[in-house]
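re: that complex we talked abt at group meeting.

here r the seqs, copy pasted straight from the sheet so there may be weird spacing, ignore it
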Amino acid sequence: MRRNTPSSRTTPPLFVLGSAISDFGELWNESVISLSQTVIDQSIASASLRPQEIQAVFVSNMAANQFEGQSHLGALISSLFPHHPPAFRIEGACASGGLALLAAEHALLSNQYDTVMVLGVEKMTDLDAAAVTDILAGAADIHSESLSTFPALYALLAQAHASAFGTTNAQRAAVSAKNHAYAVDNPHAQFQKAISVDAVLHSPSVADPLRLLECSPISDGAAAVILSTQPPTSTHSRTSSTEIIGFGHGQDSIDLASRSSLTQFDATIRASRAAYSMANITPKQIEFAEVHDCFSIGEIFAVEDLGFCKKGAGGSFAEQSLAKQALTQHASAQKAHVVINRSGGLKACGHPVGATGVKQVAYLSQLLASQTQNDTQSHIGLTQNVGGSGATAVVHILKSSCMSQKKKRKSS
Amino acid sequence: MTHIAPPQYYRQSSQWRSWIGKTGIVELVTTVHAPRQNVCGDQPYQLALVSFPSKGKSDIKHLFPICLDSTVQKGDHVICVLRKLTDTNENTIIEYGIKCRKIISQL
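got the structure back, here u go
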């Protein structure tokens, strides 16, 4: 078992060479294949690589076999490359993307491969909402949580948090309002439209106390990142590089009733502790975080479990984050506080479940790189990807740096 | 003609026996307004986290749907009963499972 001392990282660098995110939304003209082809082409182009340099593909997908009747995703995606690289399909409900990244990282760190692609894809909108709800409910314990839906499970968590800490409906609604505001300038987001706290509070009830505008949508979409143990190729356009400097994986009981606490996700706490330790940083050093707001209460749990605020203060943190978003599209003001879900999160950017964990890392790597290109400073961000009602959690920490000439790999 | 699934019933029956007749207290409850397919005739239904006393040990907690003819709130006493879980039609398998019903009179 790899152990990381608090004082130093023991892993070799894992570079994010390239990334791509498709449009998210109800994309009737797109299929699993066309979405995948889009992000394969764009990510390879962004990395200035040839397709043949991808040595393996890790495909994240939850339920293409149920949504579309398509199994054997690894082979399907491998067929989109000219050289048919080895491909694996990884499933962990909504945390499939995070787990696929971990699998890729393990393969890279074991020196099995130098450069791999992690591709997440999900095509959900060909079925009606009730059928999708049924399929997603398969990520709960189907025997001990019969007739449960994910909105219902998160509704119970919201009640538990409200009962313990007084978290209000308006504080949860602030999560949705803030994430929609951020999504306005994300061209890939499913909802590039601002909504008010009042609109959230007056939307139809889905499962008490959660309302429709507190729930992430049913989405189609794909994302890809190219990871490598080799530094980026030298190009005229690239002035920054992004590395994965920490990752962690936590598990907990799949059924809510067996949890030791209903006001936190122990899986997230375990995953984040491992990631912070590997990166040798503290939560205070995180500037941007893409967290798993499948439901509004999910983001409130996340900011507490990741150490961005005190336990029980997630509701007021959400209100402050909304206020800060309204005040600041200015980078200087954003520096005072971690920015949560700049992409719009799952709520407004969309939640094609198999793609989400990969999209979080793809988006964050692009965001950090753009920050570094603007100010030539290093920037640190975090992603948190959750499966089910908190049974699985994966945390990644990324760092962007200004690229020195000696660090660049010569272009072939 | 509706269908049954004998192996499924056989596996589940021991679980059912251990729950039928048990009484507990509702800790958390939500009303599901966006139900799954073929559940409760597309009517809203309740899902509750119920705490069951356990001799000499900490309480056992379990998530159960509430019978449609019963409405519960936090603190209510409930009893476990065997009920159909899903709506049936000519093409579906009859699914049974444990639900909870409110105990009206507590002597």
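couple things i noticed - The CA atoms of residues 90 and 406 of chain A lie 36 Å apart. The longest strand of chain A covers residues 240-251.
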